[in-house]
Design brief:
The chain is an alpha+beta fold and 126 residues long. The protein has a domain of 70 residues. Helix content is 34%, strand content 13%. It has 4 helices and 5 strands, in the order H-H-E-E-E-E-E-H-H. The chain has a 3-stranded antiparallel beta sheet. A two-stranded antiparallel sheet has the order 1-2. The protein is elongated, with a radius of gyration of 30 Å.
Protein backbone atom coordinates (compact mmCIF):
# COMPACT_ATOMS: atom_id res chain seq x y z
CA UNK A 1 0.00 0.00 0.00
CA UNK A 2 1.36 3.36 -1.01
CA UNK A 3 1.05 6.49 1.05
CA UNK A 4 1.52 10.15 0.32
CA UNK A 5 0.60 12.22 -2.73
CA UNK A 6 0.96 9.41 -5.25
CA UNK A 7 -1.36 6.79 -3.86
CA UNK A 8 -3.53 4.89 -6.29
CA UNK A 9 -7.24 4.34 -6.11
CA UNK A 10 -9.74 2.27 -8.10
CA UNK A 11 -10.86 5.46 -9.91
CA UNK A 12 -7.45 6.50 -11.27
CA UNK A 13 -8.24 5.43 -14.81
CA UNK A 14 -11.29 7.75 -15.03
CA UNK A 15 -11.41 11.48 -15.58
CA UNK A 16 -12.35 13.47 -12.51
CA UNK A 17 -13.93 16.87 -12.89
CA UNK A 18 -14.33 18.61 -9.58
CA UNK A 19 -16.14 21.87 -8.97
CA UNK A 20 -15.19 23.69 -5.84
CA UNK A 21 -17.50 26.39 -4.65
CA UNK A 22 -15.61 29.29 -3.23
CA UNK A 23 -15.89 33.03 -2.82
CA UNK A 24 -13.57 33.49 -5.79
CA UNK A 25 -15.75 31.23 -7.96
CA UNK A 26 -18.89 33.15 -6.98
CA UNK A 27 -17.27 36.49 -7.81
CA UNK A 28 -16.04 35.13 -11.16
CA UNK A 29 -19.53 33.85 -12.03
CA UNK A 30 -21.13 37.21 -11.15
CA UNK A 31 -18.48 39.05 -13.18
CA UNK A 32 -19.07 36.76 -16.16
CA UNK A 33 -22.87 37.24 -16.04
CA UNK A 34 -22.43 41.02 -15.81
CA UNK A 35 -20.00 40.95 -18.74
CA UNK A 36 -22.37 38.88 -20.90
CA UNK A 37 -25.33 41.17 -20.12
CA UNK A 38 -23.24 44.19 -21.19
CA UNK A 39 -22.32 42.51 -24.47
CA UNK A 40 -25.80 41.28 -25.38
CA UNK A 41 -27.86 43.84 -23.52
CA UNK A 42 -30.31 43.24 -20.75
CA UNK A 43 -32.87 41.35 -22.80
CA UNK A 44 -35.23 40.66 -19.90
CA UNK A 45 -35.60 44.37 -19.17
CA UNK A 46 -35.93 45.15 -22.88
CA UNK A 47 -38.67 42.55 -23.32
CA UNK A 48 -40.60 43.83 -20.31
CA UNK A 49 -40.45 47.41 -21.62
CA UNK A 50 -41.83 46.32 -25.00
CA UNK A 51 -44.98 45.02 -23.35
CA UNK A 52 -45.90 48.54 -22.24
CA UNK A 53 -45.36 50.13 -25.65
CA UNK A 54 -47.33 50.07 -28.87
CA UNK A 55 -45.87 48.74 -32.11
CA UNK A 56 -46.65 49.08 -35.79
CA UNK A 57 -47.79 45.86 -37.46
CA UNK A 58 -47.02 44.69 -40.99
CA UNK A 59 -50.07 46.50 -42.41
CA UNK A 60 -49.03 49.79 -40.71
CA UNK A 61 -51.66 49.41 -37.99
CA UNK A 62 -50.69 50.56 -34.54
CA UNK A 63 -51.17 47.75 -32.04
CA UNK A 64 -50.65 47.37 -28.33
CA UNK A 65 -52.11 48.27 -24.96
CA UNK A 66 -52.09 52.04 -25.59
CA UNK A 67 -54.31 51.92 -28.67
CA UNK A 68 -57.74 53.57 -28.36
CA UNK A 69 -60.69 51.26 -27.69
CA UNK A 70 -62.43 52.34 -30.91
CA UNK A 71 -59.39 51.84 -33.15
CA UNK A 72 -61.41 49.63 -35.51
CA UNK A 73 -63.65 52.58 -36.58
CA UNK A 74 -60.79 54.17 -38.52
CA UNK A 75 -59.09 50.91 -39.53
CA UNK A 76 -59.06 50.50 -43.30
CA UNK A 77 -57.07 47.29 -43.73
CA UNK A 78 -57.94 43.65 -44.28
CA UNK A 79 -60.14 41.79 -41.81
CA UNK A 80 -58.22 41.26 -38.58
CA UNK A 81 -57.51 37.63 -37.76
CA UNK A 82 -59.90 36.46 -35.05
CA UNK A 83 -58.24 34.41 -32.34
CA UNK A 84 -61.07 33.93 -29.82
CA UNK A 85 -64.34 35.29 -28.44
CA UNK A 86 -64.39 37.39 -25.28
CA UNK A 87 -67.90 38.26 -24.12
CA UNK A 88 -69.33 40.36 -26.99
CA UNK A 89 -65.95 40.96 -28.66
CA UNK A 90 -63.70 39.08 -31.01
CA UNK A 91 -60.12 38.87 -29.80
CA UNK A 92 -58.07 39.94 -32.83
CA UNK A 93 -54.41 40.20 -33.78
CA UNK A 94 -54.17 44.00 -34.08
CA UNK A 95 -55.24 47.29 -32.56
CA UNK A 96 -55.94 46.87 -28.86
CA UNK A 97 -56.93 43.24 -29.51
CA UNK A 98 -60.72 43.60 -29.44
CA UNK A 99 -63.47 44.33 -31.96
CA UNK A 100 -67.19 44.13 -31.11
CA UNK A 101 -68.65 41.05 -32.78
CA UNK A 102 -71.55 43.01 -34.25
CA UNK A 103 -69.22 45.56 -35.89
CA UNK A 104 -66.89 42.84 -37.21
CA UNK A 105 -69.67 40.78 -38.80
CA UNK A 106 -71.27 43.84 -40.44
CA UNK A 107 -67.95 45.07 -41.89
CA UNK A 108 -66.08 41.84 -42.75
CA UNK A 109 -68.60 39.02 -42.33
CA UNK A 110 -68.31 35.97 -40.11
CA UNK A 111 -64.67 34.92 -39.68
CA UNK A 112 -63.55 31.40 -40.59
CA UNK A 113 -64.13 28.96 -37.76
CA UNK A 114 -66.56 31.23 -35.93
CA UNK A 115 -70.27 32.06 -36.16
CA UNK A 116 -71.50 29.15 -34.06
CA UNK A 117 -72.66 31.03 -30.95
CA UNK A 118 -76.25 32.24 -30.62
CA UNK A 119 -75.01 35.82 -30.29
CA UNK A 120 -73.15 35.59 -33.62
CA UNK A 121 -76.09 33.91 -35.35
CA UNK A 122 -78.53 36.62 -34.17
CA UNK A 123 -76.25 39.35 -35.56
CA UNK A 124 -75.80 37.54 -38.87
CA UNK A 125 -79.59 37.15 -39.25
CA UNK A 126 -80.22 40.91 -38.92
Amino acid sequence: MQTGAFTSSPYDSKLHIVYKSSMCGGIMFAWLMNFISKIFGNTATTNMKQRDENWIGPDDTESGPGVAENWYLSYDGPAPIVEDIYDENYGVDRGNGAVPIEFYIKKWGIPDGFGKTDFEKNIADK
